[in-house]
Structures are given as C-alpha cells and as structure tokens.
Batch of 2 targets.
Target 1
Amino acid sequence: MNNHENGASGEFILTGISGSPGICIGKAYLVDREGVDVVEKYFVGQHEIKSEINRFKNAVKKASTELSTIIDGVPEELRDNTYILETHLLLHKDKMLYDKAIEIIKKDHVNAEWALKKATSRAVRMFKQITDPYLGARAADIEHVSDRIMRQLAGIDEVNISGIDKRVILVATHLTPAETSQIQLNRIMGFITDHGGKASHTSIVARSLDIPAVLGLETATSVIKNDDFIIVDGNQGIVIVNPSEETLLDYTELRRRYAIRRADIIRSGELPAQSADGILFSVMGNIELPEEIVGVRDNGGDGIGLFRTEFLYIARNDFPSEEELYEQYRETVELMAPHPVTIRTLDINGDKEIPSLPTPHEANPALGLRAIRFCLKKPEIFTTQLRAILRAAAHGTVRLLLPMISGCEEISESIRLIDSAAESLEKEGLQYNRDIQIGIMIEVPSAAILADAMAEMVDFFSIGTNDLVQYTLAIDRGNPHVAHLYNAMHPAVIRLIRHIVDCAKAKNKPTYICGEMAADPINLPVILGLGIEELSMAPQSIPEIKNMIRRISVADTGRLMVDVLKKNTVSEIHELIKNRFGDMLYSEIYAR
Ligand code: PEP
Ligand code: MG
C-alpha cells in the first residue's frame, strides 16, 4: 500500500486495488468484525467463583436482550427469516452451553470466557461428528451464540451491518461475500477493506451491487476514524481521507461526469454486440441471486452466462429444499426466456463457506474440498440441486455448468448423477428436461491440459479465469500482497486459453468465458482474437463491453494474436495491445 500525505490540508491518499468501479463521497463507518480472537485463561479463587458465575449469567442475559431487540426490529415482511435467530435465543440457555460453562467455572476455578470457550468447543465437536447435514449445522449456531456471549463478557459491541441507519461508507478489515451480499444499497454508498483482491468474491458481489469498492488497502481500519470524510475512487483503486476543498470539488465534478457517461453507455446496451467486421458475439450476465436478472436485462445482456448458485445456500443456516431451489431456478429461467440461463452447480468452500455445513479446518481452502469435489462427496446435497435444475429446465433454456473440474472422472460421475436424478424424476412423474447442454468450467490447469479429452465429454467449456489465473500463476485471488502479480494477460494464461479453445474447436464445441477477465476492456482484443464466442460478466459491465466489441474488427484481433503469442511478458503484451488498439481502447478506459 502506498500512503501519500498532503500535510497542509490533512488530506492523505491510500492506494489499494479497485474492487468495483465508481466514485462515492461520504463519512466513514468502521466495522469491527474481529470479535474476540484471543481468550485468556486465568484462575479465580474460591471466594470469587460466585461473582464469576454471576458475570457469566449477566453476559448471557445481555446477549439475549441484544438478540431479542434485533428480532423485534425485523420488519413484518421479513419475519419468516427470524426463526434462525429465535433458535439462537433458545440456545443461550442450552444445557450444553449454559449449564456446562457454569459447571466448568465451579469445577476448574477458571474465568467465564475460558469456561465458555471450553463448553463451546465440546458442543461444536459433538455436532460436527454428526453426519446429518441439518444436525451438523447446529455447530455453527452454537458458535454464533457463544460469540455473542463472549462479546458481552469482553464488553465489545457487535456491529450489525444491516442495522446501520445512516448513509455511510463501510471501512472494514475484510467483508465476507455473504456479508457483502447483505449490504443495503439505500444505506451503504460503498466500502473499503484492508484485505481482498480484484478477483475475490467480495469484489464480485460489490460489482454486482454496483457500488464503488476499494480493497487491499492494508491499513484503512487503522488510519481512518469513524466519521472521517472520505472519497472512494473505485476506478483508480484509491481512497482520499479528509480531502481538501479543492480535491472535493474535483471529485464532485468527476463523479458527475462518470454518472453521465455510464448513463450514455447503458442506453446503448440494447444494441447487439456485432464487431466492426460483422461477427456477432453474445454478452451475458453473471448473477448470484435471481433478483439480479433485472440488472442483466436493463443492461442489455443476452442471457445468463453464470448463475453462481451458492449464494442461495450462503445466507442461511440450513440447506434449501428441492422445491425452494426449483422455484428460484424456474423464476430465473422464465424471466430470462427465451435467452439461456447457465446454472452452475454449487461452488462452495474456498472463500465461500456455507454456515449450514462448516467444513473442518483446511490449511489451503482454495485447494480443498471445494465445488465439484464437495458435491461428489455429498451426493444427496448435489442430487437435490440437480433435480431442481432439471425440473426448471422444463420452463426455458437451461445449461448446466460444473465448477472446478480437474479430471475426467469428475465429469463422468457428475453425468451419472444427472442421469439418475432424471430417472428418479421420471419415476415420480414430475415434469423435467434432461435434454440440456452440459458444460464444465475450465479453471484448474489440469482441466486445461486435458481439454481435448474433456471436449468429447461435454457440450461447452466456460473458462473461469478468476480461478484459472489463481491456479496457473499460484496467486491467491484474494491476497493483496500478490495482487500486483495477478494478471489475466500473463503469457502462460493466454497460451493455456489458446490450447483450450483449439481443443474445443477440434471437437466442434464452443468456448465461453465468465471470469472477471471478460469485463476489462483492455483484455477484449485478446479474448476476441482467441476465438471465444460468448462473454459473461457482472451486469453493469455489459453495455461497455458491447460498445467496445462494436468498435473492434475481429480480423485485426486475429493478427494481434499472432504477435501476442510470441511474447513472454505481461508488459510486452500490454504494449502490443496499446500499439494496435490504443487509440480506441485507451480513450474509453481513461474516460471511465
Ligand atoms: C472464475 O473462477 O472465473 C469464476 C467465474 O468462478 P468464481 O469467480 O465464482 O470462482
Ligand atoms: Mg471459479
């Protein structure tokens, strides 16, 4: 991070990574989500035991009151969702937690925090041993409840994002994708974090909410105070703290111009993405929730190229039923008809853990039990989703997309489960459609290398460059310390994509791209030159990319690629793009 101070005005600039474009100006609101990390153990004398138990009981009482107030504040129309909180309320006095903690204080003569920690880990361990996912999910509930009591014992107030009642800019060490997806747009203008990178799921959610975000600032939470006036420039990835009057005026003008330009581009979103030499491309939208379809339609998307279904599992403490999933998918498919909807099966873990089934600790979650690996290990959870997808496919054009495939067996095993889901639906006399396209995400180098074999097994490829770049270059997509090395224009990535497209073409299969790479105009000449037929991205990026496609000649991009493939560094490749497409591209990029 770069920290540049202008002594005269007290203004200083923090440099991070652009998470989501746009400019917002307002007051900082610090979110302390660190909670209580370190629990100290100390002994309490015999004569202090009674008061230690009372301290514990008081904390439980306060935690319960706090939770009841939150429940009472939930608007009537959202009351259906409070049952999880009500379960937590009951757990405050649960024998395993409440009675056990008191027993430990008495028996071991230890402080309340330590006793609670011990009681919690014992209960969590017990629940985690249960293989039933619904009961297993109780472990997460116990942890939430214990956290709340622990904060009371330590005297730390919880910051409840959904409870923020003024228009602010969030400043946090990090926000999880689930927390980000709960941001209320009428309250939160934008957010900045110490951790996170451009391709992290948190910034993906920010882009889909269409709010400016700067991530990876490293020290934002230490140097910014509550109510500090800040400017978030999501276009350049910088934050200006305590801006001078002059800076404020400049930025107010910049924000106005940016809004006008966005409005112009959005108006052109409906026009087809036909290149200057007449080749028609599909530009689709990536969504996390069915509500985002409006954004795809308003921005002129030609369909849904990626429906990240895990978000329907993340914001809750149990698993959705087949019926719920079916309703959600059917709604999406019907709203998007006649355009296709590409439903990606559950891609959880990595940086998207679901509360209903916390996984055991993994040293490297990105290389762990993620996505298809999780689904094949939990066929009952996978089958529920597959049945819902096949049923929704009876109502429009559905493509099924399998994430994080790394070997051919995963494809054959998945197809076997899809077939058996179809058979069971047939037997039960439910309406479904098995005649759908099945594709795989190419996001692991082994899949790219085996693309020729895999192309024979599926109907299409969709390249997930967020992960493909991460796994090919060995760069954690959410780690700010290596974010400067994360680049989709790396020659190794480009050559890998060339190989994937060539293998698919040889088997007459199309290749699409749905990673964030597709939304950055600077990459566009290379993407078109590589022979990608369809691009999918956050809905707000669709009009801009369509606009640029209309100005590019695909024949020119083909010529560009001959030279790009001879280059060995990112900077040489950028230089080439700049020389050939600079006039057009850079005027667009810098106008952002
Ligand atoms: C990708 O990896 O590029 C992708 C689109 O999937 P996700 O970002 O959800 O991992
Ligand atoms: Mg991915």
Target 2
Amino acid sequence: MIDGKKVLFSGMQATGNLTLGNYLGALKNWVSLADEYECFYSVVDLHSLTVRQDPAELRQRARKLLTLYIAAGLDPEKNCIYYQSHVSGHTELAWILDCFTYMGELNRMTQFKDKSAKHADNINAGLFTYPVLMAADILLYQADVVPVGKDQLQHLEITRDIAQRFNAIYGDVFTIPEAYLGKAGAKIMSLQEPDKKMSKSDENPNASIYLMDDPDTIMRKFKRAVTDSEGCVRYREEQPGISNLMDIYGACTGKTSEEIEKEFEGKGYGDFKQAVGEAVVDTLRPLQQRVEEISKDKAFLDSVIKENAIKASYYSNKTLRKVQKKVGLPEKIR
Ligand code: TRP
C-alpha cells in the first residue's frame, strides 16, 4: 500500500512498435487506473539485453516507448513511468532472489525454451534468469496487481512462488502479487490472420496497425484486411475477420455491435472497412500529435525521467533495505 492505495506494477519491453492492439487492449484502459492504484510502469531495458540489441536503437526505442505512454494519457505525475536501469534496486534484489530460485523451476519456463530455440547461438545466463529479474521488478514495489498478457502468467506464478518461499523463511516481507484482471480492453486480432492476436512482432506489416502509422497506411491496411465472402456486417464467432473489425470500430467509436450492425445494414465490406479506417485514424491522430509535441520538449521528458527514477528509487530502496537486513547483510555505515 502506498498512501492508502494498492500498488500496480507493469513492465514493458521496448522491442517492436506498439500496435493498435496494445493501445485499445491495454494502454488506453490504464489511464483511469491511477485513481485506484499507485501505478508503476517500467521500461524494462535490462530485460532487453537478454537478446542482442543495437545500442543506439535500443536507447531510441526505449525513449519512444516512454513518450508513447505519456502521449496515451498516463499522467507522469500520477504514474511512475521510468527506466528499469535507472533504479539499481532491480538488479540488487534480483541477485538475492536468484539465490532463492531453483534451476529446475527456471528450466520449466516456456518462454526460456522458446527463446533458446530462437536464439540458439546466444543462450545466455540472463535469458535463463529473466523471470527472476521480473520477480524483482514486481516484489520491489510490493505490488498487489500486475496487468499481464497470457504469455506472462507463468512468470507471475514463479514470482509468487519465490515470494512465498522467501516469506516462509523470513516472515511477511513481500506482498504476494496477483494478475490484474480488471475490465478487459478490446482484444484486437491480426488483420491478416484474425484467429491470431495482433502482435508487434508479426512479420507481415499488413497484419498490424502501428500507433505511428500515417492515415494512408492505416486506410490501406484496412482495405486489405481479411474478411469472408458473406459480405454482411454482422458479428459472428465463426467469422473472426469481420468480428475483429467490428470490435475495432466499437472500441474507437464506443458503439455496440448491434448499433454497428444497424448502421451498416445493406452495406458491403468496402464501406465498412472505409469507416473502420477513418475511425482508427481519428483515434490515433491526437495520440500522434501528442507524441510529436512531447518528443520536441526534451526538457519535459528529461525531468519526467529524472523525477520518476527518484520516486521509484525511494520505494524500491525501502524493500531492498528490508530484504538485505533479513538475509543477514550488514547495514551500511552512513
Ligand atoms: N516480461 C514482460 C514481457 O515481456 C515484461 C516485464 C518485465 C514485466 N518485468 C515485468 C511485466 C514486471 C510485468 C511485470 O512482457
């Protein structure tokens, strides 16, 4: 608890460009969470080092991600948006937690297995202990809730196991975090293979709308979106293409499926795709303008980065000191 509020922690990697799915499904819905939770959003740049990165590109993408979060409406005064690498407690706690995590547990992580297969020439120790650094991220802030995608549930589970193991030995040190399952945002699917989630790492650029896509690109991608041969705008489970477009249109305009069906009664997919494209362009335009503005204001961004790192350090140090004391490390002489 911080100031009577529960704590929410989320980490995001600066790999790939954020998509419309990230925005409508997550980011947009996080804006109002700051009323209820003390929110920490960390750009987890240390995690990104587990695969080879181009240094200049990593730095640039990380700053861009931070900018997008603010542009999406997360007020940096109310939400602690910061770089993981600016708060040394993350790696310090990770080392201690490493000593409370078993090789066997880490060996079972499906993401480790997947990434090892994908980067067979670079199966480094960081890739193996990735979940422990993630556990440190979460436990350092005594987070109550963590909004995560399905692919990260296993990592949250190991975080809970590590925390419970530690608490069983040393008393109630860590809050046991839970997955945040608040009101779900729209689940946006690929425009090309609508039974797959829209993903920032999709190899087909037509499958995803990126948040910084220009209007022409957006209109073109919707024109090419996969639908079916039935040609009527109606929500049908077995036709994920048209249903996905309806979800996107609904999320951008606030209209329900029934309202959308009525609006496009007797009209074809061409008209509908045009309308969806325009709704998305209208939704992203203010976001893109804010990104431009914020990017230009170097002093503002720098001060957010600095102030929030100080704030994150303050809370993380409290936990770190407690942990260090519990495990028997000597107190620093000040
Ligand atoms: N592993 C997460 C992902 O790839 C990112 C992450 C790092 C994270 N630390 C976290 C997510 C802590 C939630 C909480 O998506």
